[in-house]
Write a structure and sequence with these properties.
Chain lengths: 135, 135
């Protein structure tokens, strides 16, 4: 299924500000049985591409490997009524640089120099999401 | 599709506390084309049933009428690392009492006596969700 190209949207200034702030994203994906899955995530971006960092084998990672379509809602922690919902698709998943990237996110969200939740038997992975629609 | 019964879970004390607090839920549903949808929602409960209030015809309402499976993440606003993800299914949608219910939610979330976002051409509806799995 999936791989329906639904165009590319430019991240709006509000979306960029919310992503750059210490705000959580709630990432929706679809499980194998077609039911929805949602998980809180730390968010980052590289130009117009949204970055999420997870662990290989987690439900959301496997969901996005199977079906590249995602929806992501990000609300301003200090004003939850300022928010965006982004629909898009995963354009890449890469383990390259994923350890450094989770440390960068731990710095942003927790002020920590190093991410504390790592486990030696877990492989971090960066998910790259291209926005298709922003509301 | 859907209507796969996946059992009923009892709302955990943390889930109840998060729902009763002034915390947002992020509700994931599945669009007609099988892609995920996510929307921030105010949350309430009636015993073990989670209540969400929306407008007839909105994407999430139509999604839940088509496929009763949902996922809902609720984080503590004051400590976003305290959170639950609930998977469940919609057991009812009703417009009965939905106006009073949105006022109740406006009181809880905004301290308002009446919900300010109503429009005469919109019909409010209560979505009743039975939890199946809580993590």
């Amino acid at each position: 299924m999936a791989n329906v190209v639904i165009g590319v949207a430019k991240l709006s200034p509000i979306a960029v500000r919310l992503i750059e702030g210490k705000n959580f994203g709630f990432l929706a994906t679809v499980l194998r049985d077609g039911s929805p899955h949602v998980a809180p995530v730390w968010v980052d971006h590289e130009g117009n591409v949204i970055l999420v960092n997870t662990v290989v084998g987690r439900a959301k990672q496997k969901n996005m490997a199977r079906d590249d379509r995602v929806a992501l809602s990000i609300a301003n922690h200090d004003n939850p009524y300022e928010r965006v919902v982004i629909r898009g698709r995963v354009i890449a998943q890469t383990t390259e640089g994923a350890e450094e990237h989770i440390d960068k996110l731990a710095k942003k969200y927790r002020g920590a120099d190093k991410y504390q939740g790592s486990s030696p038997d877990e492989q971090r992975i960066i998910i790259k999401i291209e926005p298709a629609r922003i509301s």
